[in-house]
What does this fold into?
Amino acid sequence: MSQPLINWFKFASPASFYPLAGKLWPWFAALATAFAAAGLWISFFVAPTDFQQGEGYRIIFIHVPASWMSMFIYCVMAFWSAIGIGFNTRLSGMMSSALAPTGALFAFLSLWTGALWGKPMWGAWWVWDARLTSELILLFLYLGYIALTAAIDDPRRADKAGAIVSLVGVINVPIIYFSVKWWNTLHQGASVSMTKAPTMAATMLWGMLLMALAFWMYSIAVALYRVRAIILERERHATWVAELPEMQR
Amino acid sequence: MNAFVAILRRDLLLAMRRKSEMLTALFFFMIVVSLFPLGIGPETALLRRIAPGVLWVAALLAAMLSLNRLFAADHQDGTLEQMTLSPTPLSLLVGGKVLAHWLTAGLPLVLLAPVLGLQFDLSSRALGILMLSLLLGTPLLSLIGAIGAALTLGVRGGGVLLSLLVLPLYIPALIFGAGAVEADMAGLGAGGHLSLLGALLALGVFFAPWAATAALRIALE
It folds into this structure.
C-alpha cells in the first residue's frame, strides 16, 4: 500500500489538531476579511440599483449567503457526526458542536434579513412561504442540537447524542422542505414567488458569490477558533495541554 | 419474535396497571381541542375549517406528553440494561415498546378524534379521513418520539428538551395528516396525502427503532 502524502488520521487526535487549527484560523480569518471587503464594495458601490426594488434589494448580499451557509453548515455537522459515529473519534464531535452556533447564527441572520427585505418588498415581515418556513424549522433543529448537547454533562455522551440528532435532522431536512412546499401550494396563501426573480446582473452575482465566500471562510475560521477552545476545555487535564507555551504563563 | 411479543404484552400490562397515565394524556387531548372553540368563537364555518389542524396539533402534543414514560421507568429500575444484554437485538425490543406505546397512547387518540370532530361540525366523510390520517400518522409520532425519548433519557430538563427535539421532526406528519382532511374537504381527494403519510410511516418503521437503539446505547454507557 502506498503511503499518502499527508496522514489525515494523525489530525484526528486533538493534540495534533490543536496546533494545526491554531496555524490555519488566522489565514481563514484574513481570507474572510478580504472577501468581505471586496464583496461589500461590489454590493454597495458597483452593483447597479435594481429598477424594480430600488436600493432595498442590496440586503440579498447578506441574506442569500447566510441562507446558503445555514444549510451547508448543517450538512457539514451531519458529516462530522457520521464520521464521529463511524470512527468513534473525539474530534468529530467537537467539530460538530463548534459549528452549531455559527449555523444557528446564520439561520437567524437569514430569517432576520429576510424579514427586513420582505417588509418593503412584499409588505409583510413574514409570509408562510416554503423557504421561510423551512429555514425557521432549520433554526429549531439547530437549537434542539445545542440544547441537547448543553444539557448532557458528560461531553462524550453529549457528542454522541448530538451526532444522532444531527443525522436524524439531516434525513428530515429534505422531507420537511418538500412537505412545507406542498403544504404551501395547497393553501395558495401568500402567492409570492422568489424563484421567478428577474435575471441578475453579472455584478450582483459577483457580489453575492464573494459574500458567500466571505461567510464560508468566516465559518471555517470561527469553527477552528471555537474547536481550539473546546479542545482546551476538555483536555485540560492532559499533559500536552499543560506543556503548551500559552499555558506556561 | 417471542421476545417482541413478550415485551409488548409486558408493556401493555404495565400500562393497564397504571391507567391514570394513559388517561391523563387522553384528557389532555380532549381539553386542548375543546379550548379552541372557546378561544376563537362558536362560528361553525370557521370551526369546520380549523378542525383538522386543531385536532392534529392536539394529537401531536398529547402523543409527546406520554413519550417520557416510554423508557424512563425501565431506565430507573435497570430493566433497560438487562434488555441490552439479552440475546435478542435491542432494536426489536425497542420496536415492541414503541408498538405498545402506540397502542396505549396513539390508538386511543385515533378512536377519540371523531367524537371531538363532531364538536367541530365535521362531516362523516371528513371524520373518516381524519381517523385514517391519524391511524397512519400516530405510529409515526411514536416512532420519531422514541428517538427523542431515548436521547433525553436521564438528562436534566428532559421533558422540555424532548419537545424541542421532537416537535420540529413532527412537522411533516402534521402537514400531511391535517392536509389530507383539508384536501378532501376541498374536493381534491386525500389519496396523495395519505400515501405520503404511509411512505413516511414505512421510512419510520425502518429507521426509527434503529436510531432509538443507538441513542439508548449512548444513554446507558
